[in-house]
Amino acid sequence: MIIAVDGPTASGKGTIAVQLARHFGLPHLDTGLLYRAVGRQVWLNGGDPDNETDALAACAFDDALLDDPELRTEANGGLASRVSVHPAVREALLERQRAFANQPGGAVLDGRDIGTVIAPEAEVKLFITASVQERARRRWLEMTGREIEIPLAEIEADIVKRDARDINRKDAPLKAAPDAMVIDTTSFDKDQAFELVLEAVEQAFG
Ligand code: C5P
Questions:
Q1: How far is ligand 1, taken at its centre, from the CA of residue 84, in Å?
Q2: How far apart are the first and last CA of the chain?
Q3: pTM of the model
Q4: CA-nearest residue, atom 5 of ligand 1
Q5: How confident is the model over 141-192, as pLDDT tens digits?
Q6: What is the DSSP letter of 182?
Q7: Which position among 35, 75, 95, 149 has the lowest Cβ density within 10 Å, counted as fewest Cβ atoms?
Q8: Domain assignment present for 204
Q9: 31 assigned to some structural domain
């Protein structure tokens, strides 16, 4: 069984994907991490994330980079969003994601284009969303928990910018597949959101 979990930044899709993988005993791939690694590698190379050639060269990152805690920072998320616009970058990361999705026994993948491009054949497609204000609040809580001081308004502005870039890019934009279950987690905590998702998945599959 392939489970595709898409949605905007800080929607809770990553947590839900991890919980689903644990629940169904499936391997999980956070595809955003691949784009984050490309963004980080461009920076390490001294390249320009908006230049397709520089971004493509960075796709040859060493897998050890995937463990770099710097990948998770807001600044690196911005770089990831910029390199992910280039069709050559998306193409370079495609096979790795498809191979993961199609491994025997199935998998859970989360990202922006799993249900639409990477695994349109997925048996379960979820599109997890929440209001911009709630996503900003969650990100802010997460950052203050890590003792990173950043104004809420700055996070909100960054989320709006990233959403716009992800939604409006020509290649594999962020959007729900027509057959995806759309789940809005704005008024739910993590446990409630997972309960809602599990109910939807179990209802769909009896
Ligand atoms: O999910 P995460 O915030 O880690 O993703 C970072 C960036 O990578 C996103 O803003 C998006 O631009 C890009 N991305 C993508 N396609 C995916 C996963 C992430 O374009 N499947």
A1: 7
A2: 14
A3: 0.94
A4: 32
A5: 988 998 888 999 999 999 999 999 999 989 989 999 999 999 999 999 999 9
A6: E
A7: 149
A8: no
A9: yes
